[in-house]
Amino acid sequence: MADLLTPQLNAESSAPDWLQARRLAGRAVWESSELPTRKTESWKYTSLFALQRPFMAATESAESAEELGFELPQLAGSRLVFVNGFWREDLSDIVPDEAIELVRFSEADQTQAALIAQHLGSVVPGNKHPFSALNDAVLADGVFLRIQKGSKAACPVQLVWHNSQQVDTAINSQRLLVLAEQHSEATVVEHFSGQGHSFTNGLSELILAAGATLNHSRLHLESAEALHIGGLHAALDRDATLNSFHVAFGGKLKRVDIVINHQGRGAHCQLDGMYLLRGQEHADYHTCIEHAVPHCTTDETFRGIVGDKASAVFNGRIHIHPDAQKTRAELSNKNLLTSATAEVNTKPELEIYADDVQCAHGATVAQLDESMLHYLRTRGIPADEALVLLSYGFINALVEKQRLESLRDFLKPLLADYFGAALAVDSDDAAG
Amino acid sequence: MLSIKDLHAEVEGKNILKGLNLGIREGEVHAIMGPNGSGKSTLGHVLSGRPGYEITQGSVEFLGKDLMELDTEERAQLGLFLAFQYPVEIPGVSNMEFLKASVDAVRESQGASAYDTVGFMRRAREACTAVDLDQAFLKRGVNEGFSGGEKKRNELMQMMLLEPRLCILDETDSGLDIDALQVVASCVNAMRSDSRSFLLVTHYQRLLGYIEPDFVHVLADGRIIKSGDKSLALELEAKGYSWLNDGEVA
Fold it and tell me: pLDDT by residue (tens digit) across A142-161?
């Protein structure tokens, strides 16, 4: 395994003490860690072979939005854009909103820095994931979003991390900390895009205080060659609600670990995800929902379409601790394979130590419904087109569940493009 | 237009149709009535080419073509339409996307140009209004979460947009309240023309009070055992199906 730390150390800049301390701690863990191999159970179907080659430190880019080939959803709120890991003021837009504070770590004032230092890493389990340690070790400019107690953000906040072609084999890291204070509400969209073979090591932390609601999306729209190891860690206090939506297109190696910790009674999580893979792409979602306390609920749905020689891994763990009575948790993962050489490994993992719980799970590699196919054909739609339409519907049903209309509008053409179908009508205009 | 001769068909190895004969000419409205289990719905499914419905004997000719040689979509493109008794739900595909794909495919097969999006949406809204459905249903997933009556109206909307030559309505009237029944009737009556025919499959005479059929047939045990004009429906309503069974079988 090439040393992934060195190129980033060379690019290091000055940092406040609290950040420096975190870096050193992360570095110590990284240097003493063994990287997972395919003998490690949670990495059985995902090889890190693609990381075994030299990477270069990312460099700043001055390319324009056109040159970068930006295609971003139009969400109307604040947008922070990072290209090759560097903040791009010219591409960013801060829309003032009294409900939120949105700053980069490097710009944080004293109060904000204290909050960051207090919460950063607090929900990421210590040594479990060496890539989190690597993220700490090179931590430079993360994003801190604080939603004030009792306030509702007026517009969605969009965070864009884009890799330009300029450095084809760069290594980048991304960091986000969201602190949703008591009874606050906000929408956050994380957006990863870019060209080339770059490797992104991402880590996002969401902390929801009592009664907070956070609508979160994480979009992986990277190139077919991109490498991404990402972590999303969330902690939900009493009656907090997290709606988290994950989208993955493309990527030669994509691994996202999602860990949701229900820590306060009455917390609820809706976790949806979709992956659309082709060529030789590979995506691996490992989700883990920790039900530590009673009366929490989880609705988790992941769907994937895997074609050509692509492969997908889904591992959905739901861990219900002895105290977590009256838990209700549902997990579903459905996959469609569109070629004989595509591969899916799906596995639900329920660990239940409480006796008064409702838990359901299903994981399938399915065929499209025969009766739906027949119905479309009776309306004159040829079988091959009907299959495309049904595959599209299979995925779009998840998109339609999402609350943010501008996000749905953004994703639809991407779906149409993936399916190679001219979906003729924008249904949102249909009733206009 | 449609000529069915000595049709035998089985479902899961069980004989359902046992020598059915039926001829429908252009512009005619036929009603098929019969008790539960007589094969009424099977006939519609066989004509639509549903997988699992095997024809074991006989022939069906539609507009001069051997229907059994055609794929399901080719039958639809030729002008055969089946309004399902229990339409499936297709979440994730909006009604509008589905309708456009369907009408485009049928028009393309007939050598007609596709409607432009705006023009099509206008037509779809008009059809929606005609079947008394709120236009919000165009945005929703196909039949997703629709009530029984809304599904039936959705079937009729498709029928209006596809402008088929032969419309088979499979118990479209069952489970409908009187208002919905009148919508079905006015839709069918508005579409009646010299070149379009209808086959109404129904359990009750009720619908035929609103749509006047040219012929009424009674289906029992996989065969048409009696045919007549609209008065036959009234007679059935008054005497029940057992009257015929007693008469024929005895």
Answer: 999 999 999 999 999 999 99
Q: Containing domain of residue B109, as a range? A: 2-249
Query: A72: phi > 0 → left, psi -120 to 50 → alpha, else beta; which?
Result: beta
Taking CA atoms, B239 is separated from B34, B40, B206, in Å, by 13, 20, 15
Interchain proximity A400–B92, CB inside 8 Å: yes
Smallest Cβ–Cβ distance between A431 and the set B49, B50, B135 belongs to B135
Structure confidence at residue A398 (pLDDT): 95
Chain A to chain B Cβ contacts (< 8 Å): 118
The single-letter DSSP state of residue A42 is G
Looking at the partner chain, which of B48, B73, B91 has a beta carbon nearest the beta carbon of A383? B73
CA neighbours closer than 13 Å in the CB half-sphere of residue A68:
24
Q: Based on the structure, what is the number of domains in chain B?
A: 1
Query: Nearest CB to B82: which of A378, A381, A424?
Result: A378
CA atoms in the 13 A half-sphere facing the CB of B107: 15
User: How far is residue A173 from each of residues A30, A33, A119, A135, A205, measured CA to CA in Å?
Assistant: 14, 18, 19, 6, 14
Confidence at residue A11, expressed as pLDDT on a 0 to 100 scale? 58
What interface predicted TM-score (ipTM) does this complex get? 0.95
Strand partners of residue B141:
B94
Picking from A77, A132, A138, the residue whose alpha carbon sits closest to that of residue A105 is: A138
Q: Round to whole Å and give the CA distance between A262 and A292.
A: 6
User: How far apart are alpha carbons A286 and A331 in whole angstroms?
Assistant: 13
Closest-CA residue of chain B to A429: B139
By the 10 Å C-beta count (0-12 exposed, 13-18 middle, 19+ buried), A77 is classed as buried
The pLDDT tens digits for A64-85 are 888 888 888 888 899 999 999 8
- CATH number of the domain that residue B127 is part of: 3.40.50.300
